[in-house]
Amino acid sequence: MSDSIYFIADVHLSPQLPERTRLFLSFLDIVKQRGGSLYILGDLFDFWVGPKHATLHDHQAALKKLQAISRCGVKVMFLYGNRDFYFDSNIARKYGMEVLGDETVINDHGRRILLTHGDLFCTKDHSYRLCRRIFRSNLFRIIFKRLPVTWSYALARFYRHLSMHLVPRKHPTRRNITPEAVQAAFDSGMNLIICGHGHDQLSKDYTRNGKQQLLYMLGDWSDKGSYLELKDAELTFQSVEKNDYHGDVEHGN
User: Fold this and answer.
1) What are the residues facing 234 on neighbouring strands?
2) Are 238 and 228 in contact (CB under 8 A)?
3) Residues of the chain with pLDDT > 70: what percent?
4) In 147-172, which positions are buried (b, 16+ CB within 10 angstroms) versus exposed (e)?
5) Mean local confidence (pLDDT), 85-90
6) Hey, what long-range contacts does 92-101 have (CB within 8 A, 24 or more apart)?
7) Cα–Cα distance between 21 and 152 in angstroms, integer?
8) Global pTM?
9) What is the CATH number of domain 5-244?
10) Tens digit of pLDDT for each residue in 117-126?
11) So where are the chain's domains?
12) Residue-level pLDDT at 174
């Protein structure tokens, strides 16, 4: 019997949402107990301002718990989201994680599985794609990371606040993933795609010409801890409920 592989996205950890941190710690306890591998497909944090963010108290409980499960043998992989693309490799290694960039491909029982956050499938959201290019440019990275942490933190919170007001006003065809972009990924040789970003837990069949092609979108963590488990070639959605954790958020026990 093979070890499980767990996939999560859009947890959006925030010091303003301690209950969500408790939920995440509970989930990590489950992964630690069962063993296997964990893939974080972006937006683990509501925002991340760079290496200096690790000096703040915001996410210490979550980071220390990730470090702890890694030391127990759980392999933890991190892919960038649209909120935490400044989470760099050095900080990741310190807490037992490996950064894989924007996407990666894994193989399971002869199937090629694309893992990515999902924002790159939103090809019609031109304003977001422009912002993405700007914020991820080398010049902006250098400037942003050299700012005092209080300045970069304030700017990130402002942008997050602005985004929360502007995104719901966009037409669904602009802010949602486009079927053409997903199909292009399948046409490149993928059998399965696992992503987040849409915040709605779902599976969709893109099968054509007798070739099975399935998209799994991970749910967000606004109400419960949504995750996808791959075990013995089977993919199943699971969840952690808010009353499942009884530990100490402060210390991440």
Assistant:
1) 231
2) yes
3) 90
4) eebeebbeebeeeeeeeeeeeeeeee
5) 93
6) 94/54, 94/67, 95/63, 95/64, 95/66, 95/67, 95/70, 96/66, 96/67, 96/68, 96/69, 96/70, 96/71, 97/40, 97/66, 97/70
7) 23
8) 0.91
9) 3.60.21.10
10) 999 999 998 8
11) 5-244
12) 61
